[in-house]
Amino acid sequence: MTRTPPALELRAVTAGYDRSAPVVRDTSLTVDEGEAVGLLGPSGCGKSTLAKVAALLHRPYGGTVHLGGVQARGWRHRAPRAQRTAVGVVFQQPRLAADPRLTLAALIAEPLRATGRKAEALARTGELAGSVGLGTDLLGRRPHEVSDGQLQRACLARALALRPRVLVCDEMTAMLDASTTAALVTVVEEYRTSTGAALLAVGHDRTLLERWCDRTEEMPCTAAGGPPLRSRAPDPVSVPGFGPEAPSDH
Ligand SMILES: Nc1ncnc2c1ncn2[C@@H]1O[C@H](COP(=O)(O)OP(=O)(O)OP(=O)(O)O)[C@@H](O)[C@H]1O
Q1: Fewest CB within 10 angstroms: 30, 81, 96, 152, which?
Q2: What one-character DSSP code corresponds to residue 233?
Q3: Which residues form the ABC transporter domain (predicted)?
């Protein structure tokens, strides 16, 4: 029987900002279709770097990235569009990830416009905003006129606009309060349930990631010896998705 290829596979990735001292070394990670994997590890161990490699935003020194079984053939704008748009990404700090000149409507519609879908952008912006709990009254505002939570909702809507098969959430909720965290996790889970998309969620909040994800991976510090990643299934009492109790902020 042929096995469905993983939605995301990182094979022996070595990456960083100085070829002589990479922050990620020979690291492999697989996220199956429909699976949610949490990536934990000490600060500075390279989780965000690995997340950027997974989202084809950072070119590794070594190793390969495969999306749906197909090896990525480029990085950033040089990646083929079908691969680039197969991964949606949300970062920790929405103010760094959002062009301050754009209204929230334009921000959400950015990927649709950038891929030439102007009519779809007009038709779906309101629906996308609604799907992340963003009132249409906020769509005409610019990033400095909304809260971090409202801006992060817009960034999540932007990441979902092209209906990615893989969603990478890099500390998406780290700056948010417990109720906004719960709301955004619920949005991601509803999206995954309806589309079968895979999730790679990076963070420090072990309680949140162990509740949210099917399994977690521990990323060691390369200075302390490097991979392999250590896998951990959730406790029997925790459930995939988000339970009734909101996690605390950190
Ligand atoms: N653009 C950059 N240029 C140079 N070094 C960088 C850059 N971005 C990150 N680094 C360094 O790479 C290392 C790994 O950073 P990274 O952000 O991937 O770690 P992290 O595990 O996500 O950390 P945290 O949990 O604190 O967010 C750190 O030592 C960091 O200082």
Answers
A1: 96
A2: P
A3: 8-246
